[in-house]
Amino acid sequence: MSFATYGRVSGRGSQLARDRVAVSGSWAARVLKGFWGGRKAVGAVAVIAAAIAPVSAQEALPFETEFTEQVVRVPARGIVDGVAQEWSLVATLYRPQGAGPFPLVVLNHGSPGARWEREAMGRYRPLPQIREFLKRGFVVIAPMRRGYGDTGGEWAERYGTCVAPDYYRAAREGAKDVNATVAYAQSLPYVRRDQVLLVGQSAGGIAAMAAASENPSGVVAVVNLSGGRGGRPYTHPGDPCVAANMTEAIGKLARTIRVPVLWHYSENDQFFAPRHVKAWFQAFRDAGAPGKLVMQPPFQWDGHGIFGAERGLPIWTTAFDSFVKELRFAAMKPPAMIPVSDQGTAPAHPAPTPAAVSASGT
Q1: Distance in angstroms (rounded) separating the CA atoms of residues 1 and 226
Q2: All structural domains of the chain with their residue ranges
Q3: Could you tell me which of 145, 151, 150 has the C-alpha nearest to residue 58?
Q4: Residue 224: its H or E element
Q5: Residue 281 in contact with residue 293, Cβ under 8 Å?
Q6: Which letter does DSSP use for residue 36 in this model?
Q7: What pTM, to 2 d.p., does this model score?
Q8: I need a labelling partner for 76 at 20 to 30 A (CA). Which of 45, 144, 151, 260 fits?
Q9: What are the helix (H) ranges across the chain?
Q10: Quick one: pLDDT at residue 67?
Q11: How confident is the model at residue 100, as a pLDDT?
Q12: Count H helices, E strands: the chain?
């Protein structure tokens, strides 16, 4: 995953916690010194410290005041490892002014490798990127999948060992949470049920494609931003654990994907090198799924972070706009933002009747 912004709710959703790093500076410096060297490592630690979103050091802040931001509980159910289960997800809603209905972006986060990092994620809250969707007239809902941040619980997307990763299982588990979020959001009166766009970064991109493979009603396209699993940027830059297993998993998922998918990557992605991405995309196309691969030139020191970096905004939004234009969304004007200081936490809607689902690093 890239180091995007996360936040954490305190009390009944009345305030946020500013992100601070729970990483030992000396440990991070040792890791990064080998990768970037010297002063660059110190600078990189500072950048990460401003971006990750841990739980251990928090500073209470009010909700974002430029637009509505509301914390909700998303009900979900499914078969997990052969057992029927019910659970709920913490998600954050962001919406433009007006009654709508508006098209929807379901924004899906990546996955840190360490358990403590996953637990420290709080809520997925990359505000510069969310503003870009809002400016284009989308409602945004950003769920925390099982085992991450404020949702907590067991990590559902485990894929086993680096020697024999089961990426297909992990993707299917992520899909359950994504599609539960789709069903919840479609019940909101200001959301267009027939114009849902799944967007995901890193592990979230794979989860979004897996969700689309189940053909949920109303989902019209997927945007896969640097998607993959098993990345090892510090020890094996560009080479994830058994990339061939991801090729196989994507080929299986793609057999039932009917909506177009934008694949957006960078040439210097330290998690997933272009040769692997191209093999994955070829498997995707060979399975009959529609899509387009956009490979951007090298971005900063690691193109995996192109979505999470503010300097990356004009890059990925250009590809996004071109892709969305072809989807013929309803004409939208950039909306004004609602000046609301605190929308609080909303109760979960009744659990939707689930479709049949099948039964799990980065």
Answers
A1: 9
A2: 64-346
A3: 150
A4: strand 219-225
A5: yes
A6: T
A7: 0.78
A8: 260
A9: 25-35, 38-49, 115-119, 127-135, 167-186, 203-212, 243-254, 274-286, 313-325
A10: 76
A11: 86
A12: 9, 13
Per the CB < 8 A criterion, the answer to whether 208 and 197 are in contact is no
Closest by CA position to 264, among listed 302, 231, 223, 300: 223
Angle formed at CA 150 by CA 145 and CA 356, multiple of 5 degrees: 30
CA pair distance 14, 343, nearest whole angstrom:
8
pLDDT of residue 329: 67
User: Would you state the pLDDT for residue 148?
Assistant: 96
* Cα–Cα distance measured from residue 111 to residue 206, given in angstroms and rounded to the nearest whole number: 11
Q: How many CB atoms lie within 10 A of CB 334?
A: 10
Distance from the Cα of residue 353 to its chain's centroid: 24
Residue with the two structure tokens 């995309």: 281
Q: What six digits make up the tokens of 317?
A: 């939004």
- Looking at residue 82, its pLDDT comes to 87
Q: Give me 171's structure tokens.
A: 């993707």
| Strand order through the sheet with 60-62 | 60-62, 15-17, 6-10, 123-124
Query: Looking at this protein, which amino acid is placed at residue 350?
Result: P
Pair of tokens at residue 345: 């936490």
Amino acid at 344: G
Q: In whole angstroms, what is the distance from residue 82 CA to residue 210 CA?
A: 19
Nearest to 238 by CA among 273, 262, 266: 273
> What is the rounded end-to-end Cα distance, in angstroms, of the chain?
7
Third-level CATH fold of 64-346: Rossmann fold (3.40.50)
Report DSSP state, residue 271. S
Burial class (CB in 10 A: 0-12, 13-18, 19+), 258: exposed
Residues in the chain, pLDDT under 50: 1-61, 331-361
What pLDDT was estimated at residue 44? Answer: 41
Q: Is there a cis peptide before residue 101, judged by omega within 30 degrees of 0? A: yes
Sheet of 139-143: strand order equals 291-296, 261-266, 219-225, 191-201, 102-108, 139-143, 83-95, 68-80, 345-346
